Amino acid sequence: MIAATHSNHPIATVAAATPRTSPLQEARACIRQAKMRITKPRIAIIESLLQHKGPISIERIHHDVGAAVCDLVTVYRCLAAFETLNIVRRSYSHNGTCLYELSLGRDRHYHIVCKACGETERLDYSPVEGVERMLQDRGYTQISHVIEFFGVCAACQKTSSRAHGIKTGKSKRLIVATPSH
Ligand SMILES: [Zn+2]
Hints:
Blueprint: H1 10-16, H2 23-33, H3 40-51, E1 56-57, H4 58-65, H5 72-84, E2 88-92, E3 98-102, E4 110-114, E5 120-123, H6 131-137, E6 149-151, H7 154-164
Parallel strand pairs: 4-6
Antiparallel strand pairs: 1-3, 2-3, 4-5
Bound molecules: zinc ion.
């Protein structure tokens, strides 16, 4: 397993994400296409998601957006709407907390989440490639799945063994939701 990086500098992430059409412009276009209004909270939520390279919690997004801009319920509602528009993708932390990241309809990818520090790393490997195709062949439609990997990152193992003189075991968990008919 690749060691998780602990860099989480918003400025670096934003600077790296400036292709011809910026993700923010893309998200704005999606919102307009859905005949939804471009509101300050909606843009603030997308900006918050852009600042983080991995999935983040609703509370974290609300913290970034600021209580003065909108309440937590508005963040929930916006994210639910964004999810149906494929602007965001939902995943889960090891304790079941919902996490969101910007997807903008791009290909599905998976993450390994550190159980100690919560740092998320993207896996450029699909463990279920072909499964959806097989299920489609069996006549299933609207197939969905949830797969999350959890472990303790290399940096946290070092911190933990320094602090307690113990070794933290690596673990991995796989949750597979059965597809809905
Ligand atoms: Zn960690």
